[in-house]
């Protein structure tokens, strides 16, 4: 299968009062269709910056990002926006649900952004909520939900528009252990059932065990010699790799 994401020689450098601060240094990897790939590293290692570059929200200083076979450098701002809209569903640490909209309305937002009428898709949206255990919450508002429920709503929203790639930025970082486990099980299940590709960034060893591959990003550099391959990864294996990197 063709790579949905292909990254080559990626550099991102920010100018600070102290001088140039490299955040990513010669990063390169691929994510193939229907893969579940985890990029793991401590806070400040460049994980979120990497996601911003993949989604075209920021531009690298050097290197290439190809999304769905298209080189983002060669696209206009509008073309990047449309590609992002049609290719990527986002799952964030802090949910980013609109408080004045119901669960059903929040999940239908990607359809409205795509120019479709959410009302016409309501049966499908309700079916999606039911699959994620949220059928009884369709008319509820975010403040009436638990943290785990809000994150499952955000996963439903990421799935609703049909985008093939889910970018997940520390999706369990604001949840209890139990709720976080349920969210990771949900992500793993929708990868299989909905034929989606998942790219997860996290610092949580338990979350990494759900991936087909685990890559380690430390101080902006990808340590491919420590990469792990699943399925069936254990938390102990992840901890051993982290220890080898002195994290």
How many helices? The count is: 9
Helix content: 25-40%
Report low-confidence residues grouped into runs of 5 or more.
none
One letter per element, helices H and strands E, the order comes to EEEHEEHEHHHHEHEHEEEH
How is this structure best summarized?
The chain is an alpha/beta fold and 247 residues long. The chain has 9 helices and 11 strands. It has helices at residues 47-54, 77-87, 103-107, 109-113, 122-131, 147-160, 177-193, 205-208, 235-244, and strands spanning 3-16, 19-32, 36-40, 62-67, 70-71, 88-91, 165-169, 197-202, 213-218, 221-222, 228-229.
Which terms would index this structure?
247 residues; alpha/beta; 7-stranded mixed β-sheet; 4-stranded antiparallel β-sheet; 9 helices; 11 strands; 34% helix
Topology:
Elements: E1 3-16, E2 19-32, E3 36-40, H1 47-54, E4 62-67, E5 70-71, H2 77-87, E6 88-91, H3 103-107, H4 109-113, H5 122-131, H6 147-160, E7 165-169, H7 177-193, E8 197-202, H8 205-208, E9 213-218, E10 221-222, E11 228-229, H9 235-244
Parallel strand pairs: 3-8, 3-9, 6-7, 7-8
Antiparallel strand pairs: 1-2, 1-4, 4-5, 9-10, 9-11
Description of the structure:
This protein is α/β, with parallel strands linked by helices and 247 residues long. The chain is built from 9 helices and 11 strands. The chain has helices at residues 47-54, 77-87, 103-107, 109-113, 122-131, 147-160, 177-193, 205-208, 235-244, and strands spanning 3-16, 19-32, 36-40, 62-67, 70-71, 88-91, 165-169, 197-202, 213-218, 221-222, 228-229. Strands 3, 6, 7, 8, 9, 10 and 11 form a 7-stranded mixed beta sheet that branches. Helix 6 (147-160) runs parallel beside helix 7 (177-193). The longest helix is centred in the C-terminal third of the chain and has 17 residues, at 177-193. The mean pLDDT is 91.
